[in-house]
Specification:
The protein is α+β, with helices and mostly antiparallel strands and 251 residues long. 31% of the residues lie in helices and 27% in strands. A hairpin with a 7-residue loop joins β8 and β9. Keywords: Cell cycle, Cell division, Cell membrane, Membrane, Transmembrane, Transmembrane helix. This is Cell division protein FtsQ.
Amino acid sequence: MNRKKPKKSDNVLWRLCRKAVLLLLIIGIPFLFFTSTFQLKKIDVVGNERYTKEQITEQLLQSKLDSYTPILYMKYRYFTQFHYPFVEKIDMEMVDNHTITVYVYEKQVAGCVEFMGEYLYFDKDGIVVESSSSQIENIPMIQGLEYNKIILHEKLEVQKDELFDVIINLTQLIHKYDLDVDTITFNKASEVTIDCGGIKVLLGKKRTYDEALSELKNIMAEAEGMDIIIDMSNYVKGTDHIIAKPKKATE
């Protein structure tokens, strides 16, 4: 009795099926293991002040692959720089299979100037670190100056070199004494006026403003919410050369 030989096409189909199953076992099982073992479930953000955790997280997760802990960690640890306004850099720590901690190092911004419709922000050394089309809150705006040039990542240049030192001194002291200053304005005589909400403070022209701003910190605690002008242009430590009057009286 003659047996029928299997068709050649059946043998080919069978071999293809076996290869497909083998390939599925080799690739599919490790893939399922990886996706279930390293699914990113939690991102902790540390050091962020200007941005929320949600904003940082949204910027980090750019693709579906970023939702796996080792991939996200390796990406920003070794291959990709994190680019976001006012962020100097980030560091990452893979806490466990499902958790990453992101350490955010923000650029230290001392003040802001407006130039050709853009807001340019500089650090404590006067280096322009960032530009933006909108003004950021809680960063003092410098007004009344002329600028020789403003180039990103270079030192701010103004019409008088000595004014640069004044600007840096003022912005550092404002940060030191935690004063809420909206604008720092220079007049033609290089005299300084600062605006703190509804309060305008005349500081005049001094070699250093440390003593005046130290005293202003105490005054602001009592003058909060008032709409007044405080004249400290002749203030000397240990004296009472401070004049406060309503703004309306001067209009």
